[in-house]
Amino acid sequence: MSRQKDLVLEILNGSRGHLSAAQIYESARERIHNISLGTVYRDLGELCRDGYIGRFVLSDGSSVYDRTPFPHGHLVCSECGRIDDIEDPCLMDDLNRITAGTLISAEIVAEHICPDCRSSINRAKA
Amino acid sequence: MSRQKDLVLEILNGSRGHLSAAQIYESARERIHNISLGTVYRDLGELCRDGYIGRFVLSDGSSVYDRTPFPHGHLVCSECGRIDDIEDPCLMDDLNRITAGTLISAEIVAEHICPDCRSSINRAKA
DNA sequence: CTCAAAATCAGTAATCATTCCTAATTACTA
DNA sequence: TAGTAATTAGGAATGATTACTGATTTTGAG
């Protein structure tokens, strides 16, 4: 594992995951000033392929990368953009049942309003 | 509704859905030879916004458009690329529960092996 | 009808995320 | 240490999508 690849992995593990390639690139430049975006993409791709990290596609078609390689759903808050994991195992159980055990990968991205924003909205109303 | 927009909608309704903008553009050119790709994109965007059709993002970041605007999951066969709807309501029920009723939209794309390809593979083994 | 305002169009340029390419650098191996 | 393989930085190329522009079509009030 090269210095660049190691840094990319470290940045992702140091965050709560859910970073775009551009965000990781920005962070990485603080430590390796001339690291290239292409390298970040290549390393992210290899880390995905080798099962170190995960990746999922937002509804605008761009990708974000995840600390954990295990398939799980994501909640995107439509107010603040915050991304959380879906811990509930029901969804994957359902998908395994529906695909008769042939499930290879799953992308679940649900847009909702996160608890914090729900509170704000309720306060604003009151 | 313009002639172009109407044609776009008709093409989508005439298919089983799940067409890319480029595919719709190709079909449309058979009837309006000089229709432009930009028009197809604009009309698809408006049809989505106005609730006539749906749209979802594949794992490569590109979009396909769907006859039905109601949120539902999709199964993509990793062997043949075929896309089917998930009829099972459990997934949406789960998501509604998980988001405490604040679910706005959901993208579910599961990669699996479709029944046809499962059969082929089993035949090949035998 | 008639004509002007509004909507829509075709065509093309621009954008954005991502991938590809290449020559140079670095790391491994014997 | 010399040779080879892997990896890099930087930039060019790609592909999907969006934005722009001037021309054309539609619409609706008089």
Q: Key terms for this structure?
A:
homodimer; 126 residues; alpha+beta; Arc Repressor Mutant, subunit A; Dna Ligase, domain 1; 2 domains; three-stranded antiparallel beta sheet; 5 helices; 43% helix; flat; DNA-binding
Can you walk me through this structure?
Two copies of one chain form a homodimer. In chain A, a hairpin with a 5-residue loop joins strand 2 (54-57) and strand 3 (63-66). Chain A has helices at 3-14, 21-29, 37-49, 90-98, 115-125; strands at 19-20, 54-57, 63-66, 74-77, 83-85, 105-112. Chain A folds into two domains: 1-69, Winged helix-like DNA-binding domain superfamily/Winged helix DNA-binding domain (Arc Repressor Mutant, subunit A); 70-126, Ferric-uptake regulator, C-terminal dimerisarion domain (Dna Ligase, domain 1), CATH 3.30.1490.190. Chain A starts with a helix and ends with a helix. By secondary structure, chain A is an alpha+beta fold. The first copy, chain A, contains five helices and six strands. The mean pLDDT of chain A is 92. The longest helix of chain A has 13 residues, at 37-49. In chain A, the strands form two sheets. A three-stranded antiparallel sheet of chain A has the order 1-3-2. A three-stranded mixed sheet of chain A has the order 5-4-6, with no helix packed on it. Chain A is flat and about 50 Å long. In chain A, helix 1 packs across helix 2 (21-29), helix 1 packs across helix 3 (37-49) and helix 2 crosses helix 3. Strand 6 (105-112) of chain A pairs antiparallel with strand 6 (105-112) of chain B, so a sheet runs across the interface. The structure holds a DNA duplex (30 and 30 nucleotides).
